[in-house]
Write a structure and sequence with these properties.
Elements (H helix, E strand, L loop, with lengths): L3 H10 L7 E2 L2 E9 L6 E7 L1 E3 L2 E5 L10 H8 L2 E6 L2 E9 L2 H14 L2 H7 L7 E6 L2
Family: Belongs to the F420H(2)-dependent quinone reductase family.
EC number: 1.-.-.-
Pfam families: F420H2_quin_red
Length: 134
């Protein structure tokens, strides 16, 4: 099973032939700029689409703290996204309360653990929309 750095490397090397489909769902690669280091960081994330946007969840497995990639997007919402062989720039934004209410069930449908993650933390887990630019 692919995970973490190996997942990113195989996905990028095979244009998503390895890694796009993962544990019964689909993943994309999100590349953010480190808010402290300035270095690019790539993370595989489960996604679904909503209109022209790609939807991801900043769950960090229900950890009380937001994932680093989400903190990086708060500092700089411009990011790189790879879906299979398609690579593009996107602007990230956190879903509004109303959007989250609508999108959360769609994300939990493909990864039911999201409901468990939210139940295990007091943190309101953000839903993020990645909207292609340019």
């Amino acid at each position: 099973m692919l995970f973490g750095k190996e997942h990113v490397e195989r996905y990028q090397a095979t244009d998503g032939e390895e890694g796009h489909e993962w544990q019964g769902t689909t993943t994309l690669i999100l590349t953010t700029k480190g808010r402290k280091s300035g270095l690019e960081r790539s993370t595989p994330l489960i996604y679904r689409t909503d209109g022209g946007a790609y939807v991801v969840v900043a769950s960090k497995g229900g950890d009380p703290d937001d994932p680093q990639w989400y903190k990086n997007l708060q500092a700089d919402p411009e990011a790189g996204v790879q879906v299979k062989a398609d690579r593009f720039r996107a602007r990230a934004r956190t879903a509004s309360t109303e959007e989250k209410r609508r999108l959360w069930p769609h994300m939990a449908e493909v990864w039911p653990q999201y409901d468990e993650y939210q139940a295990s933390t007091d943190r309101d887990i953000p839903v993020v929309l990645l909207e292609p630019v340019g």
